[in-house]
């Protein structure tokens, strides 16, 4: 289920009180493909983590549809991510000793009994769609960077999320692998109703987005 | 107050069942915690992957736990093995009569062949003992000479049979120049030797140089210092020392009882065996006089073990303290090891894994290392006990057969339960870490 993102008066501060992010108003309609760019340290990833519910803001609200994740308990935010969000990271963050399918279906290990089969099936289908069907049983430690990132994408899709959040997904890839990943990201979000928000320095990725938001000094220029 | 029916039920159970129940109860906390923590999740393959990721570090951690547990287990098992071994070595010595002195010293001399200079019992005393209607065996134990590291003991053929049963090889001594050796004595059948006067460094080898004794038989193993001894007719010892041979003129060729009190030169100790158990007590009472001391080596040993019970308790406390220290070390180690996995755990939490799942992963990881280390520790303990028992047996000739028993398994079960309960702490700590900091680390 895709949801509109509404951010109001969001402020995230570091422990010592320094302001890391300030967003007066940000609206992202469901199904949009949004790129976020800006210089290093500008607050791009902090914005992504805030809208993923990975951090509790100092003030303001972050709401996906009618769910105000900024006011949820950590457990409820985790449940929200589990049910609605797929995450892709710059350096893949895979369990090297597990197979591609084991990584893609990792959510099955903590899902309810009733949904385990569906997650494993979705992970398998995701690997197939991303061209990794034959490698599903192999440990990812022998995979190339591009293959690893596609496994990470299959993992992000295994719970059929309405939202995909990607943090520098192409930064650790060569150009060819990066282009293929951008293709995959676009194909898996565009037309599917999924919202895609990707933090990146990659102009090729931004070219495939509906909209690109610049972040400067902790403030998105919207 | 325990209800009577419960006592009847409990003490009606076979001992092995009681032990097994205790063991299960000690493991129960770990089992219950495990069930509660892992319930409805499947963390095992993830935990296997985590362990494999840093396999050498984890293996080292398991080895450290195994060695610590093995030392604790080995310590307790060894102490029990030594206690049993010393008791077994004394069990053939029902009642010993000596000149008055220290019972412990006389027991060490008579049972464990640690000779001391003691006054001799005279022929009148021996005769009174041997003539007692309740006495089945009265054997002089005349020590003081040696050959190499073997004590040469003068006694009777009946004592040899009483001590070790039928000979394993050869025949019983039948003349003054014949000997029967213990199972581990370094003399073959047919070998001749000259006994030295005294024992150990103080032995004078040339005092009896005109004497030559020949080995004619070998005893079966007894698991005691007597396995290294050389047993000769007591008359042979007297003859070697230029003393009367215990028999009246005209009977000088006789070997063994009866002895003539007038020609009985003396003996440091007499082993007495009565037909009936109660008679032993009567004999002890009868021969506890101004001139003689009668004692049960088993009882003296028991007192000694009782006194050493404090030492045993200290050893047990040391074993427990060691385990507590190990537990603390395990926790500290786990805290460090879990930092290795901080990013992966943060990933799980970022993906939306419930805290309880992450908790179960960390706890299962810790419990797996602890459990594996504990099981390996039993193996280490078993190996250590085998090696140390062999060394103690070789050095003392007291057969120490230390094996692992329920007390050791209980120690391990207690250790596992306590440590896996304590492992909840690092699991809680893992949840308190900042997800984003760990993701970016």
TrEMBL record, chain B:
It comes from the Bacteria. It is found in: Cell membrane. The chain crosses the membrane at residues 20-39, 59-77, 317-341, 362-391, 411-431. Residues 60-237 form the MacB-like periplasmic core domain. One of its GO terms (cellular component) is plasma membrane. Residues 317-430 form the ABC3 transporter permease C-terminal domain. Keywords: Cell membrane, Membrane, Transmembrane, Transmembrane helix. It is a multi-pass membrane protein. Its main location: membrane. PANTHER family: ABC TRANSPORTER PERMEASE, ABC TRANSPORTER, MEMBRANE PROTEIN. This is FtsX-like permease family protein. It comes from Jiella endophytica.
